[in-house]
Amino acid sequence: MTTYMDIISIFILITSFALVASKKITSYIKAFRIQSALLAMALAVMGYFHFVESGRIDTLVLCALIIALKVVYFPKLLNKTYDRVEHKVEKDFFMNIPMLILLCSGIVIFVYFIISGIGSFGNEDVTMQVVNMVSVVLIGVFFMITRKKAIGQIVGFLVVENGIFGAVMFGAEGMPLIVDIGIFIDLITGILIMGLMVFKINDLFDSINTNKLRRLKG
Amino acid sequence: MSLSDNEFIFTLSILLLLAGAIAAIVFSRKHKAANIISNCFCIGASALGAVSVIRHLLDGGGIKQVFTFTSNIPLIEISLRYDNLSSYFLLILFVLTFAVSIYSIGYISHYYGKRAVGVFNFLYCSFILSMMMVMLAGNLITFFIAWELMSVTSYFLVVFEHEKSENVKAGTVYIIMTHLGAAFIMAALMIMYALTGESMIIGSNGLFADIPEAFKNLCFIFFILGFGTKAGIIPFHIWLPKAHPAASSNISALMSGFMIKTAIYGILRFTLGCFGVSEVWWGTTILVLGIIAAVLGVAYALMEHNIKRLLAYHSIENIGIIFIGLGIGFLALSKGNSFVAGIAIAAALFHTMNHALFKGGLFLGAGSIQYSTNTKDIEQLGGLIKKMPLTAIFMLCFSLAISAIVPFNGFVSEWLTYQSIFAFLSEGSLGMDLIIILSAAALAFAGALAAVCFVKLFGISFLGLPRSESAKAAKEVPVTMLSGMGILAALCLAFGLFPRLVLKVIAAVTSEIAGLSLLENISNSTIPICSGISIGNNRMSMAALLVVIVVLVVAAIIGVRLTGGKGRSRGFGTWDCGFVEINERMQYTATGFSKPIRIVFRLLYRPYRKLTVKGEIPEYFPDKMEYKVGTVSIFEKYIYDVIIRWLQRFSRRVKYTVQTGSIHMYLSYILVTVIALMLYGRLF
Amino acid sequence: MGYIIIQLVLMVGLAPLINGIIKKVKAFSQKRKGAPILQMYYDIGKLLKKEMVVSETSSWIYKAAPYVVFGSTAAAALLVPAVTNAGGLNAAFSGGDVLVLLYTLALGRFFLMLAGLDTGSTFGGMGSSREGMISSLMEPSILIGLFTLGLASGSLSIKMIMSESLSKVCPIADPVYIIIFFVLVIVLLAETCRIPVDDPATHLELTMVHEAMILEYSGRQLALMELAAAVKQLILMTLIVNIFFPITAVLPAGVPGVAIMIILYIVRIVLLAVVIGVVEVCIVKLRFFSIPNLAALSFILAIIGFVNYFVIGR
Q: Which residues of chain B neighbour C129 with C-beta distances below 8 Å?
């Protein structure tokens, strides 16, 4: 199983690089969708093994939830929001893309340096996967920092969530189902509110450029 | 479980207070019912509580458990218990609450139909309950919870009349100061717990005494800073004169009468009770702080013309007097002189009780004046003695008591303090004689200035001619308010005449907290019925003195009658130097009254006067002239204003450099923090 | 009991004489004949019979004040034994010590100041305000002075302080005592409104203190007020003569001894009164706001006396 998992986790990391490298909003929503799909795939593999070993189906339920929410619903919602607010095309990021990629690689190396030093994971096999997933978390935050548009921040936030979820899943074979469902409900509320806020920001500033929020400061 | 069972009565009194709080909310629609029912519960609770603690103390005391709640989580443990020290402070609280609650029945009536009386009474009961909890707190966590609860409930009571902006401002200053103090207290409590793992403070296993000296000293500094803020020790006093005028008078009475005393309790509980006194400089610090507070407190009070602010400054003075007693006691303990320490600590505890009685009463009196004239400014008053004769008599009693004039209780506790100073000095050279004698001088000076200040307060507001329409229209307050004040006035006189009644109770406390025997040292069997105290060769008996004065007054009346016959007298206007009839505007004002002192101590007061002339050509054709005199608080100007300005400058810099308003900046802070934490985890 | 009555009669009866003597000394220095020495007795007798004019503004405080002031001052007079020898000390009233004495006098002063404010007259307020300032400035030095004497004799009780003086050969030669003596003299001049502080002879609103407070009084009330002021003056003088100039000769107890002591006491008091009169003649009245300097002087003297006690006195 470890091999499959390793491969999937690397793909997830690569999608997050794709995310950082994409210029247009639609393209990074797409990258996020692929990343979520990969996550669902990993879950499906794990769920299959669980089902075979002990007859548990909770991991499969979770997989279905991920597909429903992160692969289908959120990207659709984001696309719809984008269609309704965005009219003009402008530069969406602070640094040029090669620089961003370089920095992201730096993050991965840094995380590897950190995680390899801890070494307290019960299972040495998962170290690589955890490194990848924690890198996804940090890259997600980094992504949020570098994008100007509010939708970028939402996607970045979702990627952070993906990373945390993945780290837990790979590192400790998932949390109890009830906790995960709780997190998902939180996430849905969060995303809905953020979506609403995007409209509000658009109304107020005629743009969803979060740089303009500076003006709100007293 | 009967009424003869002390713990049962005590628990009953707590339950009654809770019932009072609930009743206030339940009846909140009907203002009058809410007020009367809730206050009746408070009266009952305090009466029962007082009976229970007096019996406890006279039975020899010990530790009694009231309530415990334990949980599996370490430190989350509520323990309510009391020992002799707590009982004594609880006694003060109950006596004060008893009188104040009776007073409140009448006083709150001016809120009917205007304000949420139910909420007020709920807060009132909770405030009393929280102060009780501070006294009852058996362990560190309970103490801190109760302490914060007390601060929060009192804050709400201070800002209860929140539509006035100065009240909100006063509340803000109060909550900031009190939380600064609480932070220091919390730090000290955490140090204590971290070093010993012990959390019981009442009936502790003596583990706190083993804390290394350096940490004890650190804790002591924190306690002085923290409790000093609550007590209003100069220079942490600035909230007191702001918060008291903002709160309604019955709350001020409780706050000044008891809440600031919880600081005295805290210092005694944590330093004497938990650590024991070991360092000489502890006593010296307390003594010096006491001297400063006593003298400056009364000096500032003299310049105030708002009754409640004036009284608030007097609270600072009296806390200073209590601190002088405590300081002498601590010094004596560190020198191993238990005789002097017993007298000094007894004096401090006695003064704590006395101050609760007369300052509580004075605030109630101020409330009565406000109730019938609607003003707190004594320059607007005058002639009230004819409109409110009973209030005037009570106020006169309280004024005499706070000025430490015979035969009232204030004198007895100051006398005891003087005696401890004297006894300590006559023990021999201790290297600190000069500070100790200065504390005696400070006491004398503060007492004399207090007398001047209360002559001003009483003379300007009750005597002479009314200075405003509202003072002319004043009426005597309802009987409940009068009886609330009357109880306190009677106690002031009774404790002055028979001080041994109180000292008997205090003896149980001093023997507990420091193993000091008191009664053998002060008893005097030759003077009957608990009236006399004798320490060494020094004796005092207020009852005997009062008898002598009364006999002499009667003799004077008879003598004058015998020599001069029946006196003829004629009413006439006050002498006007032959000009037109004098009116109320020609009377001496409070400002004028305190002017000589303002000029003598101008270095302290920084008086200023400003004349503004308005008009088209103000030099020649003035329409209106405004003359303003005032003083500048050097503490606010040179300490607090400087700190605030520095803080503002710092905040402005933060606003432009750190808190930029950019989401991306904030997100990078998160990233940097996460990375830093990861690095920290990896490297260390 | 009999002794206490003697003490009371002596203090109250002798008090007006002092004023007469001081006035006579001043008149003598000015080459005047002056009023008779007993003038104040005549005044009081006359005032007692005269009609009172009571301000309509005043309240019961105004009427009660003369009695309270007199009662408390007379009670204070009982605390200071005039006859120290011949068993006088043992028989004296012991309701309190030095502190009780000070605060009993404070009771009288409190009512005196209130009475000044009660009539709504500006003079009264002015007098009260000034009296308040002077008395509070003097309080620390009188306290430290008496504390030092108390330390030297091991007790704050006035009797013990006086009996300690009796046991010394010549107390005024002791450096501690001589410093405290000057302190008490300054206090005496200030507290009884004598010349560098207040001029009892004038009724000028710019200067008067005590006279301003009792300006409205007339008739028997005025008599009591004046008498109380004189008694207060005598109390302080008695303290000075009995502590610093005691009669150390052993006298028999009983009536002859006490009679001799009373005569000796009167002689010493009269001598002190003459000295005060001379002092008043020789110095001028201070500006009101120079009084703090005088108070500071007495405070510093008191502190020096205290330090002296610890350095050499023990």
A: 588, 592-596
Q: What is the 3-state secondary structure (H, E, C) of C203-237?
A: CCCCCCCHHHHCCCCCHHHHHHHHHHHHHHHHHHH
Structure-token pair, residue C143: 């306290």
In a domain, residue A182? The reply is yes
Q: Based on the structure, what is the number of domains in chain A?
A: 1
**Residues belonging to chain B with any Cβ–Cβ distance to chain A shorter than 8 Å:** 655, 659-664, 667-668, 670-671, 674-675, 678-679, 681-682
Contacts of C9 in chain B (CB under 8 A): none
| Residue A196 belongs to domain spanning | 2-213
- Is there a contact between B671 and A215 if contact means CB atoms under 8 Å apart? no
The whole-angstrom distance between residue B287's C-alpha and the CA centroid of its chain comes to 18
Domain ranges of chain B: 277-559, 598-632, 640-683
**How is residue A47 written in tokens?**
């769920």
Is any Cβ of chain B less than 8 angstroms from the Cβ of A145? yes
C113-160 pLDDT, tens digit per residue, is 999 999 888 888 999 999 999 999 999 999 999 999 999 888 888 888
Q: Is residue A17 part of a domain?
A: yes
pLDDT value at position A86? 65
Q: Does a structural domain hold residue A201?
A: yes
Using 50, 70 and 90 to split pLDDT, how confident is the model at B367? Answer: very high
Position B207 confidence tier, pLDDT thresholds 50, 70, 90? confident
Task: Retrieve residue B483's tokens.
Answer: 């009886």
Structure tokens at B42: 């408070």
Asked if B627 and B609 count as a contact pair (C-beta separation under 8 A), the reply is yes
B658 phi/psi in degrees, rounded to 5: -100, -50
Closest CA to C163 of C85, C66, C219: C85
C241 to A95, A142, B423, C163: CA distances (angstroms):
98, 94, 26, 13
Which residues on adjacent β-strands are paired with residue B572?
C55
Say whether the peptide bond before residue B528 is cis (omega within 30 degrees of 0): no
pTM of the model: 0.87
Q: Degrees (nearest 5) of the Cα angle B430, B434, B437? A: 100
pLDDT band at residue C253 under the 50/70/90 scheme: confident
Whether B465 and C299 lie within 8 Å, measured CB to CB: no
